[in-house]
Amino acid sequence: MASLSIKKSLLTILLACIVFATAPGNVMAQSVDSIVTPQFFDGIKNNAPATCAGKSFYTRDAFLSALSSFPNFGQLGSADDNKREIAAFFAQASHETGSFCYTEEIDKSNTYCQSSTEYPCAAGKSYYGRGPLQLSWNLNYGAAGKALGLDLLNNPETVSTDPVVSFKTALWYWMTAVRPVVGQGFGATTRAINGPVECDGKRPDLVQARANLYTSYCTQLGATGSRKNVQFEFGLHSTGSTEFHGL
């Protein structure tokens, strides 16, 4: 009788696990590399002109190599949450680089050097935007370099010449400055990346463009579970109350 009871208990547990795993929002999470397929990644690059330096620089292999240093990326919880974070990252990267066209900022006139004793600017070096999220300012180059074990203050150009390092800096910035606010919705990720330039009514067109990419990528990645609606507050009130799905 005890043996039969144990078998029944095990069967009950197994059935419960199956029900949980197949319930909406509880689908077993996929690995990031299975979500970011070659078709998805190359689909972004295909929107950039053939002459773009980034088309050969930014590769899925480089992204996946960099990802090994950030195993928590794309691991927010449910399968849909994970897909939404990945969609948000690539939406921001696509916008910042023109669909992976640019490896560095077009306008290089600003050195982006801020006085700092911890991360002082190196002589003759500029810290304009480079990489998928256009890492800018000596403070970010210094902090990213410290986290990655690289001297990016003296060698900032590495971010636009080494594709793995380039993606590592983008993932570092995302996990450090963006991940803490993803629960507030996609708009908060835009504020964390380029808020002073675009948010609070400064460039609603750019804010909208980022949101459009996010929505498109969510669809492409199959993020179909329930999402919380959040006010997309950053500069769109003048055209009415516009809502987008949060992360």
Features:
10 helices; Lysozyme; 2 strands; mainly alpha; two-stranded antiparallel ribbon; 247 residues
Description:
- This protein has 247 residues and is mostly helical.
- The chain has a domain at 22-103 and 162-245: Lysozyme (Orthogonal Bundle), CATH 1.10.530.
- It contains ten helices and two strands, in the order H-H-H-H-H-H-H-H-H-H-E-E.
- A two-stranded antiparallel ribbon has the order 1-2.
- Helix 5 packs across helix 8, helix 7 packs across helix 8 (163-178) and helix 9 (186-198) runs antiparallel to helix 10 (204-221).
- The radius of gyration is 21 Å and the shape is globular.
CATH topology of the domain at 22-103 and 162-245: Lysozyme
Would you tell me the overall average pLDDT? Answer: 85
- Amount of beta strand: under 5%
Count of discrete alpha- or pi-helical segments spanning 4 or more residues: 10
Give the N-to-C terminal Cα separation: 50 Å
Percent helix among the residues?
Answer: 40-55%
Write the H/E string, N to C: HHHHHHHHHHEE
Shape: globular
Biggest sheet strand line-up: 1-2
CATH class category label of the domain at 22-103 and 162-245: Mainly Alpha
Low-confidence stretches: 6-27, 226-246
**What summary fits the major beta sheet?**
2 strands, antiparallel
Radius of gyration: 21 Å
Structural class: mainly alpha
Strand element count: 2
